[in-house]
């Protein structure tokens, strides 16, 4: 889990994924020679901060978003949400502006109408526009990992494990998922043009709910706020049943992922969300079962070979 802990330490809220991309490019450069297949790497202005790895003769693309939730500093001491972070009074926030490093805390005030006003507490005024994120606090036990930003640094970590052993496929480390999506549609259109790819998997983290529990295996999402195409979903479930990997089926009415961005784009690409479930979503204390993490890597690896 040391690599996961390192990934979580890197600030990378939506729109500010550059440091995460730099870390991944350095990691790939260092370790790709030991992977089963050496990928072709695409990165640069055409892809913004996203990274595309192409292995062999690909049929399937695996998406994992690099960005996290966080806060933008507004006017005075006001904060503006990036994505949908949990608002907990006293939570520690970190960042950097021209005047130095920042370790602030979150102040949440509930107004008479139920609206919550959010501000920071710090010993000086922080430059407006500065991005603040949860202070890293990685914890590991025999059964669980717990930390801010398991969503989705854990998906990124899982994609790197998959990268070690696949011969054919594409892995995309994407941006902006927590705040509206961004490069997914453009990259998917490019992949269809260059490699004729029409099917995708989404490596992301979902929720523990009444129907999805810890230690019951990776979740295959049959739907959230969006609906994957049923014939493609059926193929994935059939393959999962033959894989021997522990999994559970998720059916939710809300939430979304890079798959949602795909479905709302003008690209016809099948997609399905495959991910471990966590407690305390979008908080500093996200908690995931280590056995479910193992199932996530195993099933994604199996599907990248057999789809």
Verbal overview:
The protein has about 300 residues and is α+β, with helices and mostly antiparallel strands. It has two domains: about 1-70 and about 140-305, Aminopeptidase (3-Layer(aba) Sandwich), CATH 3.40.630; about 70-135, Peptidase M42, domain 2 (Elongation Factor Tu (Ef-tu), domain 3), CATH 2.40.30. Helix content is about 30%, strand content about 30%. An eight-stranded mixed beta sheet has the order 1-2-12-3-13-17-15-16, with helices on both faces. The protein has a six-stranded antiparallel beta sheet with strand order 5-4-9-6-7-8, with no helix packed on it. Strand 1 and strand 2 form a beta hairpin. Helix 1 (about 1-10) crosses helix 3 (about 150-165). The radius of gyration is 19 Å and the shape is globular. It starts with a helix and ends with a helix. The relative contact order is 0.18. The model has no long low-confidence stretch (mean pLDDT about 95).
Question: Which short descriptors sum up this protein?
Answer:
19 strands; 307 residues; Aminopeptidase; alpha+beta; 28% helix; 7 helices; globular; six-stranded antiparallel sheet; single chain; Elongation Factor Tu (Ef-tu), domain 3; 2 domains
Strand residue percentage: 25-35%
Enter the CATH topology name of the largest domain: Aminopeptidase
Helix-residue proportion: 25-40%
Q: Tell the overall outline.
A: globular
Average pLDDT figure: 96
Distance between the termini: 28 Å
Output the radius of gyration: 19 Å
Outline the biggest β-sheet.
Answer: 8 strands, mixed
Specify the CATH architecture of the largest domain. 3-Layer(aba) Sandwich
SSE run: HHEEEEEEEEEEEHEHEEEHEHEEEH
| CATH class categorisation of the largest domain | Alpha Beta
**Total tally of structural domains:** 2
Question: CATH superfamily of the largest domain, called what?
Answer: Zn peptidases
Secondary structure tally, helices? 7
Category by helix and strand content: alpha+beta
